[in-house]
Write a structure and sequence with these properties.
The structure is a single chain. It is built from nine helices and eight strands. Strand 2 and strand 3 form a beta hairpin. It folds into two domains: 87 residues, Carboxypeptidase-like, regulatory domain (Immunoglobulin-like, Sandwich), CATH 2.60.40; 162 residues, no CATH class. By secondary structure, the chain is an alpha+beta fold. 55% of the residues lie in helices and 19% in strands. The radius of gyration is 23 Å and the shape is globular. The strands form two sheets. Strands 4-1-7-8 form a four-stranded mixed β-sheet. Strands 3-2-5-6 form a four-stranded antiparallel β-sheet. Helix 2 packs parallel to helix 4 and helix 4 packs parallel to helix 7.
């Protein structure tokens, strides 16, 4: 009787464990018998979600908390790091060559498939924009090529809108949608030699963020966004203007984070420590 009671209890424990977690399963043939760590984010800090070791074939299985919805870094010891998005999915990853991102495959994960697709679209658009923006000034100088200039400008507008058009098609419940928008803003803020208009647009988008949003809190990007915005602000020449912008940022952060004390406290602690 005791034997059967133990089996029943063991089954209940397993079932409860399964209900409280999701599985991240992977196959990394280039990382056999290697330590794997899944690091999540809490505001401006990292947190260990799970860890294990690949077997002799490079296979592994991790369980991450069901309540965790956000970005994470899959750390392959002394080999590579990979960003994964976690949102109520049992994720499967196959990656044979860590130097080739086209060899990376996700299965059963709409979040990570959307992230990959958006990344591909953005990279393709940026390559085309580099060529188009290079040619445009030459065509503008030649008044005989007005029609070609207009065509180039139209193509530039199309390429500039491809990434956002893709994000707009994703459902509002998609974590990839929120994460990619944060990453796009970070890219805007970090851009070197921004025009005054570009800097103003990036600042307006940053100050419009909802700093109490859990999507941001678990994205791992809050700290980078703060650093990028403050770096942009400190490049200004007028001290009075810098102080004015810092005060505006402080007011926005406090107001926006009022409904999320853990976010406000952690963000404030980081900013006071670093700046």
């Amino acid at each position: 009787m005791k034997k059967y009671s133990f089996i029943v209890l063991f089954f209940i424990v397993l079932q409860a464990s399964a209900q409280n977690s999701y599985v991240l399963k992977g196959s990394f043939s280039a990382a056999k018998e290697t330590e794997i760590r899944l690091m999540g984010f809490i505001g401006t800090k990292d947190t260990l979600l799970a860890q294990t070791k690949t077997d002799a074939s490079g296979n592994f299985l991790l369980q991450y908390p069901k309540k965790y919805k956000g970005a994470a870094t899959l750390q392959i010891k002394e080999t590579s790091n990979l960003i994964v998005l976690l949102n109520n999915e049992n994720v499967e990853i196959t990656w044979a060559d860590f130097k080739d991102f086209s060899a990376l495959q996700f299965t059963n994960s709409t979040e990570n498939e959307a992230f990959q697709q958006a990344y591909t679209i953005n990279m393709d658009a940026q390559k085309k924009l580099a060529g188009l923006n290079y040619l445009l000034p030459f065509y503008k100088k030649d008044h005989a090529k007005k029609e070609m200039t207009a065509q180039l400008e139209q193509e530039i507008n199309i390429e500039n809108s491809r990434f956002e058009a893709y994000l707009n098609k994703l459902p509002h419940t998609s974590y990839a949608k929120a994460y990619l928008r944060y990453r796009a803003l970070l890219q805007q803020l970090q851009k070197e030699n921004k025009t005054q208009v570009e800097a103003g647009d990036a600042e307006a988008a940053f100050l419009a963020l909802n700093f109490s949003d859990e999507n941001l809190f678990y994205s791992g990007l809050a700290k980078e966004l703060f650093d990028a915005y403050l770096k942009q602000t400190f490049t200004l020449q007028e001290e009075a203007l810098i102080v004015s912008k810092l005060n505006a940022f402080s007011d926005v952060l406090k107001k926006s984070s009022q409904v999320n004390n853990k976010a406000l406290n952690q963000y404030s602690e980081y900013l006071m420590k670093e700046y």
